[in-house]
Amino acid sequence: MLVLHSGGIEGDTFRAAYLETRFSRFLAWRDFGFPDKSMRNGFAMAALRSADGAFLLGVMGPHTANAGKVYFPAGTPDPSDIVDGKVDLAGSVARELKEETGLTGEHVAFADDWTVVSHGQRIALMRRVQSGEPAEALRTRILDFLEREAQPELSDIRIVRSAADVDERAMPPFMAAYLRRELMGVA
């Protein structure tokens, strides 16, 4: 795993430096409330949106470290995300989207811009991923993919069309904030 140890937004660019750690240490750091405040979990997320304007989020499977949590396909970067000495967050988003939903560049278009949402020791870098399919068809496509997986990371797909669909109990605060901003123009 890679954890962010320095950096931030400079103008319209996000620059950061990462350090490698073991997954067990990462989980302990997270589960003990992020005691080392010099480190942050800086990760990329695929903000998946359907042709009819809904967002699609995954429910993490019961065998995962975030069981039951609801958010976009994502993952903390790891050493395989380092390309030419840099952490390739765009590549990380594409990999996580494919691993968790089966969707690739054949099915979606990746936006050029990103939205950064900071919450405590988490920095979520959201990249809009646009599908040409309506929400229900896209959900069915992803669920079909999940059924074929031996041990899928996701147990379900939720469709979020309005603020009423934002589940504050299951979604981390940074997810709820992002969705409120995108759906209602409220931060």
Characterization of the model:
By secondary structure, the protein is α+β, with helices and mostly antiparallel strands. It is 26% helix and 37% strand. The protein has 4 helices and 11 strands; from the N terminus they run E-E-H-E-E-E-E-E-E-H-E-E-H-E-H. It has helices at 23-31, 89-101, 135-148, 173-184, and strands at residues 2-10, 13-20, 41-49, 55-60, 70-71, 74-75, 82-83, 86-87, 108-119, 122-131, 154-160. The strands form 4 sheets. A 4-stranded mixed sheet has the order 6-3-10-9. Strands 5-4-11 form a 3-stranded antiparallel sheet, with helices on one face. A two-stranded antiparallel sheet has the order 1-2. It is globular. The two termini are 30 Å apart.
Tell me the layout of helices and strands:
Layout: E1 2-10, E2 13-20, H1 23-31, E3 41-49, E4 55-60, E5 70-71, E6 74-75, E7 82-83, E8 86-87, H2 89-101, E9 108-119, E10 122-131, H3 135-148, E11 154-160, H4 173-184
The gross shape turns out to be globular
- Structural class by secondary-structure content: alpha+beta
CA-atom Rg in angstroms: 16 Å
Order of helices and strands: EEHEEEEEEHEEHEH
SS element count, helices: 4
Q: Determine the strand fraction and express it as a percent band.
A: 35-45%
What is the averaged pLDDT score? 93
The largest sheet, given as strand count, sense and whether it forms a barrel, is: 4 strands, mixed
Percent in helix: 25-40%
- The span between the termini is 30 Å
- Kindly report the spatial arrangement of strands forming the biggest sheet: 6-3-10-9
Unreliable spans: none
Number of beta strands: 11
